[in-house]
Design brief:
Structural class of chain C: alpha/beta
Number of strands of chain C: 14
Radius of gyration of chain C: 23 Å
Number of strands of chain A: 0
Largest sheet of chain C: 4 strands, antiparallel
CATH superfamily of the largest domain in chain C: Periplasmic binding protein-like II
Chains: A mainly alpha, B mainly alpha, C alpha/beta
Number of helices of chain A: 14
CATH architecture of the largest domain in chain A: Orthogonal Bundle
CATH class of the largest domain in chain A: Mainly Alpha
Oligomer: heterotrimer
Radius of gyration of chain A: 24 Å
CATH topology of the largest domain in chain A: MetI-like fold
Helix content of chain C: 40-55%
Strand content of chain C: 5-15%
Number of domains of chain C: 2
Structural class of chain A: mainly alpha
Number of helices of chain C: 16
Number of domains of chain A: 2
Chain lengths: ~280, ~290, ~425
């Protein structure tokens, strides 16, 4: 239907398109494959040539990763903490975003600017205040403490993202709901929140990945393996004088397997969440 | 919407948790940073008030100025190279070419690998002795371009920046999902008008996916402004501070037991960051944010 | 100024009142020890065994709890943060910035504990490192001598059957190696520039003598920069920006002939060296610099870990901490720890049932014969200076800085 006369052009276009998509594919899959191969070498082999295949596949690296760092337990902790912190974070941020993005009241602009100023706060600089805060709340070395910190550090960015999506829901929709007698909470839970799913899921995945990959506070605010997270398990192989890279890579592979599996299994749901189906306009 | 009387309680209830958390974890710490930025303090001795001395010191330090420049370049490249690449990929995948779901899945992989693994891989790729990049150049007959990528004054910063720009998966997924949410009738109307795919993309898809694209630009720029882990592992700011960034700078000041200058740098970062975010909001995103 | 101090203190206080209540002392004293000797560290197993035994011996009375800190940089960050807000751990180790910690007043005063002959356990003069105003506030524990390590097989291939005794010989040896197609030195400017920093330390002392650090403007620092830069003519092409894994990896893969590191590296030579290269590794003190003030056989080495305890008003806790420190520095235990890990200590070794590893024994012998042992540059300099070292070094090697400017840039940080 599009006309045969553009076939040469569209052939070239198609070629470029596939080259681009395949380049990105190789680019993205390469680190995973490299990591998987490297995790089966010896440290000596890895340092001699990072891109060679192992002479003997060193499956005991995985045994070591599992045994030495107790990574199974740490992963469970990570799942609990990241899930809880993501859930709390997007709920609290969505509530705030609803109030800020859809109502005009005095101080509204001020609050928006204030929240944006929190987005860029360098977390590395806050070791002292967070350490003292968590200690004074009696939450040092607890999963609750980490969950609270993670929930909080993502608040500005989540609020900001969700506000953008909430603001794009047409006003008439909500006004119609008001006329139908829907109260504030009902409008939020049955109308605006579902229609801003895309924003909520965007913020949620960002938040989850932040929590899952966070290392500085996971180390600073805990002292026992019972409450620590998987990132500490990975760093278990970096010591004062030497890093046992191959075991660390094995630990990383172990730690990303669940995320990749979960992502492959649930991606349709995640994507469906991102596809808001909101009325565009 | 204008606030109706019965909504007031709801608004207050909804704002309370977010404000409590923000006060505890952001307002107090920002006050802390500002206060400390006016003192000289090693963490082990008694703080001494020094006025604006710390600010003068860091702005007098060419490494800090370079860090700011690097961060701004990084943010611009992230927002206006990385995200457009992601949008391009999303547009291509939105027509569901063969295997598009596999592409969508795999593009996301690097995001779940920890920075430490990605960075050690790339330092091996860039290595001058056995690196993959030099090997590749030799194979395609460009051997004369071989260099110690992370170890020369000219190539270090571009190398640290460029490899990272092609990891687009996260932004691609956000934009793709948004595009796929656009109702088909828009396109049907355009088809009747005889608009080709490129015109459809420009006139329908991009404007309608605006919120997600602007969100991605913001997220990418923020990522660029607070870069730390990758640089720290790849180069630690070297050679000769060429790859330094602001968070690395303030982290090193902490390692130097100089909480005053470290906090001053943090305050500057917050100010620059807020300015950038508000600029983007007030230009690209003025209708939505 | 006062007002500002007050605001700061007030801010911290109001935010964090309850943190000052601390743990309630029950009858049993618990000592927390954020310990770096965990995970895959070579001392991990033995330390764990010691702590378990100690806890068994003092059941119901004292319990030592190990907080595992494998990532070393993260440990430093955490320790600095905790001490900054007054939550000093009960037992901990430090390795750099010693004067800052020693003078902070937050370390437990151990002077009285040393009156009962404990000092005899240590090598002579060891406690001078940790005495401030006549008070002993930390214990030198692990020793880090860092000799030259070289690959005899590769040197032989270049016609050398001994390690050069002078720098003139060293340059000749480097030329010969290069001619034989072998890269002479492992060097690095990445991370903390460890191996190059050790070379710099060696050269500075070889030129300026053991007291060179008393004057940061000593000409030896400039001269040593010139020498180190020359060494980069004989190193791998990836040396600028290389980290420990790269520079060490070259030596382990026999791509370089000469390397510099400490006793903790011996285990890696055995495990990770390619083609059994460990069998060909020997160690030597730094060559003599012609016309320099250093002496033959001089060594670079310093406390790699100092044991310390947090200052406390709780006498029971202080007593328990001292008891534990004495337990850890018991000569028989140190002998066991040393044999199991390859590390060397400031404690005179007791009888050991274990046989000493070859290079370790050589190192001890050379240390014992050394006319002096001087700390390395990182140990002898403030944090600002040693953190700048990798940046200044890469600038020097890439030609952005002259040797004079290199030293200036470092000293500007003082």
């Amino acid at each position: 239907m599009k006309g045969r006369r553009r076939s040469a052009g569209s052939l070239l276009f198609g070629l470029l398109k596939w080259a681009f998509l395949i380049f990105l594919f190789v680019y993205a899959v390469f680190p995973v494959i490299w990591l998987a191969v490297a995790s089966l070498k010896t440290n000596g082999e890895l340092m001699a040539n990072p891109f060679s295949l192992p002479a003997v596949w060193q499956f005991q690296n995985y045994k070591k990763a599992l045994a030495v760092s107790g990574i199974a337990r740490l992963m469970l902790n990570s799942v609990i903490i990241s899930t809880a912190a993501t859930f709390l974070n997007v709920l609290i941020a969505s509530m705030g975003a609803y109030a800020l993005s859809r109502f005009r009241f005095r101080g509204n602009q001020f609050l928006k600017v204030m929240f944006s100023s929190g987005i860029l706060i360098p977390l590395n600089a806050l070791m002292i205040p967070y350490f003292v805060l968590v200690n004074s709340l009696g939450l040092y070395n607890t999963m609750g403490g980490l969950t609270l910190v993670y929930t909080a550090i993502g608040i500005p960015i989540s609020t900001f993202i969700i506000m953008g999506f909430m603001a794009s829901v047409p006003e008439e929709l909500e006004e119609a709901a008001v006329i139908d007698g829907a109260c504030f909470y009902k409008r939020f839970f049955t109308l605006i929140f579902p229609l801003s799913r895309a924003g909520v899921v965007t913020a949620g995945t960002f938040q989850f990945l932040t929590c899952w990959n966070e290392f500085v506070y996971a180390n600073l605010l805990t002292s026992s393996q019972a409450v620590r997270t998987v990132q500490l398990g990975i760093r278990y192989f970096t010591n004062q004088f030497a890093t046992d890279y191959v075991s660390m890579y094995a630990a990383i592979i172990i730690s990303i397997l669940p995320s990749i599996t979960a992502y492959v299994l649930f991606q349709n749901q995640i994507i469906a969440g991102l596809t808001s189906g909101a009325v565009k306009g | 919407m204008d606030v109706k009387r019965e909504d007031r309680v709801g608004i207050a209830v909804f704002l309370t948790p977010v404000l409590v958390l923000f006060t505890l974890f952001f307002i107090f710490p920002i006050i802390y940073l500002v206060v400390v930025s006016f003192v000289e303090w090693s963490g082990l001795d008694t703080p001494v008030f020094v006025g604006f001395q710390n600010y003068l010191r860091i702005f007098d330090d060419k490494v800090f100025i370079r860090s700011i420049t690097n961060n701004l370049i990084w943010a611009l490249c992230a927002g206006f190279v990385q995200v457009p690449l992601a949008v391009l990929a999303a547009l291509m995948l939105s027509y569901k070419p063969r295997g598009w779901k596999i592409f969508r899945t795999v593009y996301f992989f690097p995001k779940v690998i920890s920075a430490i693994a990605l960075a050690t891989l790339w330092s091996a790729v860039y290595n001058a002795q056995y690196g993959l990049l030099n090997g590749l150049l030799r194979v395609v007959g460009l051997g004369h371009l071989q260099t110690n990528w992370l170890g020369t004054l000219k190539t270090a910063f571009p190398s640290v920046l460029i490899y990272w720009l092609f990891y687009i998966g996260y932004y691609m997924i956000i934009v793709l999902a948004d595009i796929q949410g656009i109702p088909q009738d828009y396109y049907e109307a355009a088809e009747i008008d005889g608009a080709g795919r490129i015109r459809q993309s420009l006139n329908i898809t991009l404007p309608l996916a605006r919120t997600s694209i602007v969100t991605c630009i913001l997220l990418a720029m923020i990522d660029g402004l607070r870069q730390f882990a990758e640089v720290y592992i790849l180069t630690n700011g070297g050679p000769a501070n060429r790859t330094s960034v602001m968070v690395l700078y303030l982290y090193k000041e902490m390692q130097n037991y100089s909480y005053g200058t470290s906090s001053a740098a943090a305050v500057v970062l917050i100010a620059i960051g807020t300015a950038v975010i508000l600029t983007i909001r007030n230009t690209l995103g003025r209708e939505t944010f | 100024m006062k007002v500002f101090k007050r605001t700061l203190v007030l801010l911290l206080c109001t935010l964090f009142v309850s943190s000052f209540f601390g743990t309630v002392a029950a009858q049993k004293v618990t000592l927390t020890w954020p310990c770096i000797w965990v995970g895959v560290d070579s001392k991990a197993e033995t330390i764990k065994k010691f702590v378990d035994e100690f806890n068994r011996e003092h059941a119901g009375e004292i319990e030592v709890i190990i907080e595992e800190n494998s990532d070393y940089q993260a440990y430093r960050d955490k320790l600095r943060t905790a001490i900054s807000v007054g939550r000093v751990p009960d037992i901990f180790t430090i390795d750099a910035d010693i004067p800052l910690y020693l003078e902070s007043g937050r370390l437990l005063d151990l002077t009285d504990a040393f009156k009962d002959g404990w000092e005899d356990n240590f090598v002579e003069g060891a406690l001078n490192n940790t005495t401030v105003n006549g008070r002993v506030v930390a214990i030198p524990y692990e020793m880090g001598p860092t000799p030259v390590m070289y690959n005899k097989r590769l040197l032989k291939a270049a016609g050398w059957d001994h390690f050069p005794a002078t720098f003139e010989e060293l340059w000749q040896c480097a030329e010969d190696l290069k001619a034989a197609g072998i890269t002479p030195f492992s060097q690095m400017t990445g991370e903390n520039a460890w191996t190059s920093m050790l070379w710099y330390s060696q050269i500075v002392v070889a030129i300026g003598g053991p007291d060179v650090y008393e004057d940061p403007n000593h000409p030896a620092f400039v001269e040593a920069a010139r020498v180190l830069k020359r060494m980069y003519d004989y190193t791998t092409i990836d040396a600028v920006g290389a980290g420990a894994a790269v520079s060490g990896g070259h030596f382990l893969a026999e791509r370089t002939a000469i390397f510099m590191n400490g006793p903790w590296y011996i285990g890696r030579l055995q495990r990770e060296g390619q083609n059994n290269m460990y069998d060909h590794v020997a160690i030597a003190p730094c060559p003599v610099y012609e016309g320099g003030a250093g002496s033959k056989g001089g060594y670079i080495g310093n406390p790699q870990a100092l044991l310390a305890a947090g200052a406390t008003d709780d006498e029971a806790k202080a007593a328990a901490a001292i008891k534990f420190l004495k337990y850890l520095t018991d000569p028989d235990r140190v002998a066991e720890l040393s044999a199991a890990s390859g590390a060397l200590f400031y404690v005179k070794s007791g009888e050991s049932e274990f046989e000493m590893e070859r290079l370790q024994a050589e190192m001890i012998e050379q240390v014992n014969q050394a006319p002096y042992i001087v700390g390395h540059f990182e140990y002898m300099s403030p944090a600002r200076v040693y953190n700048e070292f990798p940046m200044a070094l890469s600038g020097l090697v890439l030609g952005e800085l002259t040797p004079e400017e290199f030293v200036e840039q470092l000293n500007a940080k003082r």
